[in-house]
Amino acid sequence: MTVKENHSLESLVKHLDSLLSTLPTNYDLSKFSETKLKAIRIKLANYSSVLLKISRNLDKIKHPQVIFDPSDPRVVGKLIGLTLIEQPRISMTAVTPFYGSGIYAIYYKGNFKAYRPISETNNPIYVGKADPQVLDAKTPQEQGDKLYGRFAKDHAKSIMSASNIDIADFDCRYLVVKSAWQKTAEDYLIDIFKPIWNNEMGICYGFGKHGDSHLTRGNTRSPWDTLHPGRLWATSEGNKPNPKSPAEISAEIAEHFKKYPPVDISTLAISFST
């Protein structure tokens, strides 16, 4: 390390010492919006990451680039997610009843214009999970038929109700998972593929929504039901029209695919960089 670098490091530490000594320990959070607080937390996390990297680089004994920790939920989630991707892809109409809870992915292979970027690819249009019937279920039978019921019955029914898409144009993959691990796998798959029907994308959400009675509450029609009309409960008089038109939703989907083009699943591998 050169004299100039030594001086730079010492100046950095002095500057941080001075800055931290002036910072209050409590803040009036009522003065910030949730969006602003989230942005600040992200920036602070980024700063922390940079300082940690600098600290590690100052250690003469280097840190390993890869650490495999089987107790880390993120590691388990990735392993389960990658195992799902290796399962055979079958038609949604060919699934027969089975025991188990776990995760699933739904794929589109039709000609609906908005979905052409992922049609016939291995990018799911939706991924989800089904929790076990009994929280601490030890066997697939104890888990019940929750996984089958979730995507092969509930989701298939929603697709068949829509007037402009065909259940014959949908495939799926599914994996029965030991109870308590399905959520971490779902999070991994959503993060990798950014499926357009998942609520987390905030664009064409509402597919996984269960029917609501217009006698109990009035809801705004979801973007999914706006783009794919047909579910009777979603068009009842208690449901208000979505402020966005099908054309506007389709335009947002197009922008989404520009930002997140289909993932080549052959490039996905077990990697746990620190």
Summary, kept brief:
With 274 residues, the protein is of the alpha+beta class. The protein is built from 8 helices and 4 strands; from the N terminus they run αααβββααβααα.
C-alpha Rg (nearest Å): 24 Å
Q: What is the domain tally? A: 2
> Approximately how much beta-strand content do the residues carry?
5-15%
Shape: globular
Would you report the number of β strands?
A: 4
Assembly annotation? single chain
Q: Main sheet, how many strands, which sense, barrel? A: 4 strands, antiparallel
Helix percentage range: 25-40%
Mean pLDDT reading: 87
C-alpha termini separation: 25 Å
Number of contiguous helices: 8
Structural class: alpha+beta
Sheet with the most strands: spatial strand order: 1-4-2-3
Q: How would you describe what is shown here?
A:
The protein is of the alpha+beta class. It folds into two domains: 31-63; 73-267, no CATH class. It contains eight helices and four strands; from the N terminus they run αααβββααβααα. It has helices at residues 3-22, 34-57, 73-85, 140-143, 146-161, 182-193, 223-227, 246-259, and strands at 90-91, 102-108, 126-130, 170-176. The protein has a four-stranded antiparallel beta sheet. Helix 3 packs across helix 6 (182-193).
